[in-house]
Amino acid sequence: MPAEPSGDHMADETTHEPTAEEISEQKAVRLAKRERLIASADGLGGGAYPVTVPITSTIPEVRSRFVGLGVDERSGETVSLAGRIVHLRNTGKLCFAALQSGDGSRIQAMVSLGEVGEESLAAWKELVDLGDHVAVTGEVITSRRGELSIMVTEWRMASKSINPLPNLHNELSEETRVRSRYLDLIAREQARRNVVDRAKVNASLRATFSSLGFIEVETPMLQVMHGGASARPFVTHSNAFDTELFLRIAPELYLKRAVVGGIERVYEINRNFRNEGADSTHSPEFAMLEAYQAYTDYHGIADLTQQLVQDAAFAVSGSHVVTWADGTEYDLGGQWERLSMYDSLSEAVGEQVTPETPMSRLKELADDVEIEIDHPLPGKYVEELWEHHVKSGLERPTFVMDFPLDTSPLVRQHRTIPGVVEKWDLYVRGFELATGYSELVDPVVQRDRFVEQARLAAGGDPEAMRLDEEFLRALEFGMPPTGGMGMGIDRLLMAVTGLGIRETILFPLVK
């Protein structure tokens, strides 16, 4: 957490948000100060945008080293450091500023007539504004109120801020936080923590995979044929090849090629693009983890996924019980339940629903609860009915097992239940976090599934896959029994932090 100033330097800014006219006036004043700083680059202030400034320490380092310094005490040690001014008070012969580092740590700078001289103090008062980056040199001391401070003997501008900062006493609007994330990072501890937590999660994922012998690879983002998921792609054109290309919707078909080639434990953390709706759990561009492990099935890959999520939670929170941003505790520990989709739906509707249940009856069940489903596949009705009746009741992390065959064209048919595939979806916090399969490795059956997908595409289904001959050729060289999984990184952050997807993405796409 950032160390808050003690109040030696109460801010002199007003508490209302400036109007557009006031901002324009402030920019004009600041631009004039910029010109003065540039004109005096070799004199007071050292210019508006120097190439570098001499620093010997960072604000977090100084706060850590001098944590035991007593009230109104001098350390006898001089340091040089830099930070952004987030509070400022210029009065008389002693000026106060709160300097903030990138991680939110703050330290007080005290600029006095006795230490810097009349000319330098006057320049500080005339040229320095809230939001500026400044570099200061001076002795580390504590004030009479115990605030860790730098008694400045020399200062210079590190970067002149032309736009005034928003009022840091008021909470930024969600619109500002999303559209101007740089301001959010300056103003809000949670925004900075989100960036750090995401880095911890990615590092944890890689560490877990490394410990289990997985190899990280990179696959194409521009593809001549989209596949690996049922989704509408983004389409572009290559001038060099004079051909239509697609931003990938999934790396699956390339990662499976790697398994065919002998990379038996492989994963990728990548960017995917799906030209679909955006809401609290969906973004057109998102980070995805996919992994494949030879000689296991969807049960083994579920064990792996549980370990990945629990390790990530521990990396962020130090516990499998995570605390969300609103203070709610959520337990990601223990062994997670594995729930049959068909059995749980049957229990919810009070009658047996199976892969043999006719479409007419599925439509009646949907009409009974006023669900509008316009889809040619019976399996789509089963999934939509399950979401309506069962999903909202899942409180703990749960693997929902055994999906309809017709909605999962890349998945192996269940070894004992006709019309069902060995697939699970992992639900956490009420949303789908990950999905896992016993992979379909029979090239003949896979070709039949692709042909059926091509028929749906010809009938106008924009999410249907195309027949990928190169992928089928790779399968014909023999792919071992394999379990595979995919998990959204953005959603993993949502599960660990309790935030919405636009908070977990550093720079989300907005209109």
Overview of this protein structure:
This protein is α+β, with helices and mostly antiparallel strands. It is 34% helix and 25% strand. The protein is built from 16 helices and 18 strands. The protein has helices at 20-39, 59-65, 113-116, 118-127, 174-179, 181-187, 189-211, 252-260, 298-317, 341-349, 359-368, 378-389, 443-458, 469-475, 489-497, 501-504, and strands at 74-91, 94-100, 106-112, 133-142, 148-159, 215-216, 222-223, 235-238, 243-247, 265-273, 285-294, 321-323, 329-331, 337-340, 398-404, 420-428, 431-438, 482-488. It has an eight-stranded mixed sheet with strand order 6-10-11-18-17-16-15-14, sandwiched between helices. Strands 1-2-3-5-4 form a five-stranded mixed β-barrel. Strands 7-9-8 form a three-stranded antiparallel sheet, with no helix packed on it. Helix 11 (359-368) runs parallel beside helix 12. The protein starts with 19 loop residues before the first helix and ends in a 7-residue tail after the last helix. Its EC number is 6.1.1.6. Mg(2+) 1 binds at residues 425, 432. Belongs to the class-II aminoacyl-tRNA synthetase family.
